[in-house]
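$ ./design --mode recover --in tokens.txt
reading tokens...
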């Protein structure tokens, strides 16, 4: 499993989140928090409400296009957990 050296949490496993969720971790902006339960990683890939709406409006778009729109970024699993806490309000 790939790891990162997070500035805040040190060496951690990696997760993926759209750029909007990544930005909201620090800003606290309520962008939403959506994920797919089918994952082979330590945390599911996560995306915001705007990215979710895009997928609903473009159901036949190729995955590569959605990945470009969402600008998925790596983040450590502890940052992912913090994002979920802030944006989803659940442990």
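writing sequence...
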């Amino acid at each position: 499993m790939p790891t990162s050296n997070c500035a805040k949490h040190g060496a951690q496993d990696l997760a993926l989140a759209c750029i909007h969720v990544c930005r909201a971790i620090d800003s606290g902006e309520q962008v939403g928090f959506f994920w797919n339960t089918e994952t082979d990683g330590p945390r599911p890939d996560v995306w915001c409400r705007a990215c979710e709406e895009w997928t609903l409006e473009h159901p036949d778009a190729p995955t590569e296009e959605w990945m470009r729109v969402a600008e998925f970024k790596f983040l450590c699993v502890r940052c992912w957990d913090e994002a979920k806490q802030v944006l989803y309000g659940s442990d």
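exit 0
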